[in-house]
């Protein structure tokens, strides 16, 4: 089995696991706030190890702690005492490996999320403005693969 890897945006925290379990989306208010998003896409892991750094932990309840990068703030884990560690799907180097198969707390979902698939895409004029504003942008984001060190030395 191939190793599945991931990490935070700045590269200070990296992880690997031997496999993935159930992928889900949680709409509860605690997950919304923890990710600063409308929902939390999470996937269970098998044999998770930290390969660079480690997340800082916040006890979001008496049973759950959440891990995040102390340097860049990327949300990384959901750790429920009885169930093990889940990672945020977008923190995987290849998020396509974990398509969600179930939703939790749908009654708490933010109503406008139901219409996301039918929102119009940006116009050609908007895309052109984005290209002008962001053309030549130099990203400091860690690449979607393991590196011997980070940030790169000049």
What's the number of helices? 2
For this structure, the CATH topology is Metal Binding Protein, Guanine Nucleotide Exchange Factor, Chain A
Largest sheet: 7 strands, mixed
Amount of helix: 10-25%
H-E string? EEEHEEEEEEEH
Name of the CATH architecture: Beta Complex
> Average pLDDT, to the nearest integer?
93
Number of strands: 10
- Uncertain segments: none
Radius of gyration: 17 Å
| Overall domain count | 1
Classified by CATH, the class is: Mainly Beta
Fraction in beta strands: 25-35%
The main sheet orders its strands as: 6-7-8-9-4-3-10
The termini sit apart by 35 Å
Gross geometry: globular
Given helix and strand content, the structural type is mainly beta
User: What does the oligomeric state look like here?
Assistant: single chain
Please describe what this structure looks like.
The chain has 154 residues and is mainly beta. It has one domain: Beta Complex (Metal Binding Protein, Guanine Nucleotide Exchange Factor, Chain A), CATH 2.170.150.70. Helices cover 12% and strands 32% of the residues. It has two helices and ten strands; from the N terminus they run E-E-E-H-E-E-E-E-E-E-E-H. A hairpin with a 6-residue loop joins strand 7 (64-68) and strand 8. The mean pLDDT is 93.
